[in-house]
Amino acid sequence: MTAIERPETAPSSAPGGLVKSVVELDRVVIRLAGDSGDGMQLTGNRFTSETASFGNDLSTLPNFPAEIRAPTGTLPGVSSFQLHFADHDIMTPGDAPDVLVAMNPAALKANLVDLPGGGLLILDSDEFSPRNLAKVGYASNPIEDGSLEGWQTVSVPLTSMTTDALKDSGLGKKEAERSKNMFTLGLLSWMYHRPTEGTIRFLERTFRRKPEIAAANIAAFRAGYNYGETTEAFAVSYEIKPAPMAPGRYRNISGNTALSLGLVAAGQRSGLPIFLGAYPITPASDILHELSKHKSFNVRTFQAEDEIAGIGAAIGASFGGALGITTTSGPGVSLKSEAIGLAVMTELPLVIVDVQRGGPSTGLPTKTEQSDLLQAMFGRNGEAPVPVIAPRSPGDCFDAAIEATRIALTYRTPVMLLSDGYLANGAEPWQVPDVDQLPDLTGTVNFATEPNGAAADGEEGVFLPYLRDEETLARAWAVPGTAGMQHRIGGLEKADRTGNISYDPANHDFMTRTRQAKIDGIAASIPLTDVEDPDGNASVAVIGWGSTYGPIGAACRRIRRSGRSVAQIHLRHINPMPADLGEVLGRYDRVICPEMNLGQLSLLLRAKFLVDVESHTQVRGLPFRAAELAAVIQEVIDRTSEPVAPQVGEAGITAGNGAVQ
Amino acid sequence: MTTVELGMPAEGPIADAVAASVATQGPKQTELKAKDMKTDQEVRWCPGCGDYVILNAVQSFLPSLGIAREDMVIVSGIGCSSRFPYYLNTYGMHSIHGRAPAIATGLAASRPDLSVWVVTGDGDALSIGGNHLIHALRRNVNMTILLFNNRIYGLTKGQYSPTSEVGKVTKSTPMGSLDHPFNPVSLAIGADATFVGRAMDSDRKGLTEVLRQAAEHQGTSLVEIYQNCNIFNDGAFELLKDPATGTQWSIPLVHGEPLVFGPDGASCVVRDDFGGLRIAETNQVDASEIVVHDAHRENPAYAFALSRLSSQDLRYTPMGVFRSVRKPTYDAMMTEQLDVARVQEPADLGALLAGGDTWEVKA
Hints:
The complex is a heterodimer of chains A (661) and B (363).
Chain A: E1 12-13, E2 19-24, E3 27-35, H1 40-54, E4 57-63, E5 78-86, E6 99-102, H2 105-111, E7 120-124, H3 130-135, E8 152-156, H4 158-165, H5 173-177, H6 180-191, H7 197-206, H8 211-230, E9 236-239, E10 248-254, H9 255-270, E11 274-278, H10 285-292, E12 299-303, H11 307-319, E13 323-328, H12 330-346, E14 350-356, H13 373-378, E15 388-389, H14 396-411, E16 414-420, H15 421-425, E17 427-431, E18 488-490, H16 505-520, E19 531-532, E20 540-545, H17 549-561, E21 567-571, E22 573-575, H18 581-585, E23 590-595, H19 600-609, E24 614-617, H20 626-641, E25 647-649, E26 652-654
Parallel strand pairs in A: 2-9, 3-6, 6-7, 7-8, 11-12, 11-13, 13-14, 14-16, 15-16, 20-21, 20-23, 23-24
Antiparallel strand pairs in A: 1-2, 3-5, 4-5, 10-17, 15-22, 19-21, 25-26
Helix pairs in contact in A: 1-6, 4-8, 6-8, 7-8, 9-10, 9-14, 11-12, 17-20
Chain B: H1 13-25, H2 50-61, E1 72-76, E2 91-94, H3 100-110, E3 115-121, H4 122-128, H5 130-139, E4 143-149, H6 184-190, E5 195-200, H7 204-216, E6 220-226, H8 238-241, H9 243-249, E7 250-253, E8 260-261, E9 267-271, E10 277-281, H10 301-307, E11 317-324, H11 330-344, H12 349-354, E12 358-361
Parallel strand pairs in B: 1-2, 1-3, 3-4, 4-6, 5-6, 7-11
Antiparallel strand pairs in B: 5-11, 8-9, 9-10
GO molecular function, one term (chain A): oxidoreductase activity, acting on the aldehyde or oxo group of donors
Keywords (chain A): Oxidoreductase
Pfam families (chain A): POR, POR_N
């Protein structure tokens, strides 16, 4: 274990006279793995909630197959949930687990490779039957054949202890077995001193219409807890003190929930009704589910017949004066491309949420990736610039949603909000914001209610829908129902000012450049580049965007702890980028850009700033590991520190790679 | 003379904008003339196009609804017919190919105070946009869809369309088209549309009557308008238009009237032995056997059977309102859900953000 173990702090006396010791740790990474039907995600989420309410900092990584129920006990059916919690500020769900709970042989086989030697391995021995072992190709039982000697293995009959605990519950054996995840949760809750009231309340609430199921789950949960307290199998329990956090009220939140709440807040803070047009797609559907629960906030949700109808309806609602939103994942963005172009041309506000997943095509629906960046930037016909912003953590999805709305309304433009599967399903503690402190967006909604100009023939008092605000270049937005402002918009090129159809070459050139200038001008409303370089001595900078913030940040901390300097730059706004970004990047000898794609941001940075960015990429469907990134950064720092020999090129003596020209 | 009931705009900036315009420009103008509906845009259809006739009929008809121009929105897709919004002094959007019903759905669902119209064609609505059309119809969002059917692709210069007859020789089908056409009325009734009608571009009176009923209908109305493309498919509907043959092959639909048609009422519609309808000679059947048109029948089977009387060559084509039944509209039900939610759980953003489980970190 990488955690710092301190000497026993307080032996505790359990019923039966057992003396158990308590070890204090500063952090733990637990991975729960089982069959898709074993309820590992639920168990993980409950353990997370207990941990959050205890006050640890935490980060989670759910990892599950796209199949709802793959064949029981097989490798494709393995579902896992990793939780990293600590007594200090942490940034990632952890590179590798310290503790692995494997509910069957398939879960062991799929996950043991990630458990470092000496790690704690908890197995449900009941499930290691010859049949289950054969399903995943174990020739012999690893519990008995000595192959697990490198780990601290605790083999516990979790299933039969659960059914024993529920023998008087009136439930059948099969039904009682389903509570084994709660038994396991109870055992882990004892091991890590988690508060249990929240889980009991949760079970009562979830099964309020099936009290016998609620009672059985609670009984199993308590039985697991009591087993931990009394068994000799576990002699040690662990304490991880609450992490110091800024004072305030906190909750646990996932990225999709935070994003949904951000959209609701944006509607409330702008005064506009919200209209979400969406088609179900993994991993974005939870946003549709969440928003559909908040109708009282003037939120309309429309489950459309397809992705195109989803965005089409949102554009129609925006034309009517609502905040139009569409949520999807990469394949859906492909389908929506033409409609995004329509929103660019009609200059209507629209928030497009892309919760990215592995691609191309159907790709890896439940796994994370950052490979839609260039699609978001350029995936349309014609010159169709769209602002692109990305949240950096689950909780940050809330702020990013509000920022996307601000840009959409202020500049009358579709905005791409790029989340990803890791942010969407991952969770962290989130300080509940004070409503009054949220950005006030009422100023961004200034519907035109009076004629604003003169026609080409000199007629006064006409409405010119493409007359622009001088500062933002946003066009006038008049909504149906407003008398005297009737106008027609559409996908054909618009004449400047009037918005009439125009095929005039000079007008098209002007309008194309104007649409680009409007998006470029957004840079004036966003902060300059935020560089994290505590000692100010860094000659190497690491730049990222989106969900890689945590792993890059954790890697940079490791580098700094080893006495070296490194700067971290993380982009929220990718289009337009902060105005000073090129100049900032130019200060560093080397710039590294880790991405979960094949170098899409690197391509943009190289093209835009002529900076020799070193791209480091990975597309495994999983977030980066901090240790791997730290090694990459370390290698570049080592290389940078060495004197660079002059190179003789065709043009004579040129500077080495380390120099920025 | 308001004949169409519109909802109220929701509170907030939209209602404020509407109120501001009333404050500066006076009460909504609902007494309008055809010329008030025109715009300054030059109409750009081919000379002789059936679209001109339809435009004139619509411009003359819309003022009779008693709706202010600013409360009307025309949404179109792509194709010759989809230029329509530019020529009406209302709000309008000329959108992208096939998507007008989806865009109009979002608008109508979020603004029940507007009169929303879709103008589309046979290629736009039935080919690239077929999915949106059927789903709009089954949802019953409050809007009126005018489907101009000229049985050809005009704007792309003359390829066969999903309503072209089998064997159509066009630029893309030099040996004749192979695919069987849609009957748009059958398709709409199959999608459980609550209002389906059909009219002829050149029949101002008949067209206006169907439009009036469609506009007054609460829910999605589909009106198929036979429209002549004099460049690429001239004379497509001549069989029905020619006074010599028109009465013989057209079946006028009037609710409550027996389905008798043809010169001297020689033909009629009776039930066949399989639950459908067939054409008979009036003097060969008992008067009690002649079907009396009932557009309000809940079961769409009758209206569907009516739509199947006509064949690809347009013989025995019913004209008028096939079906008009009342069902709750999508937009009204959506608004109701919001009202119910507000009562059940009043909006409190602070409470929403906090959620159920929070903990406090003390300073």
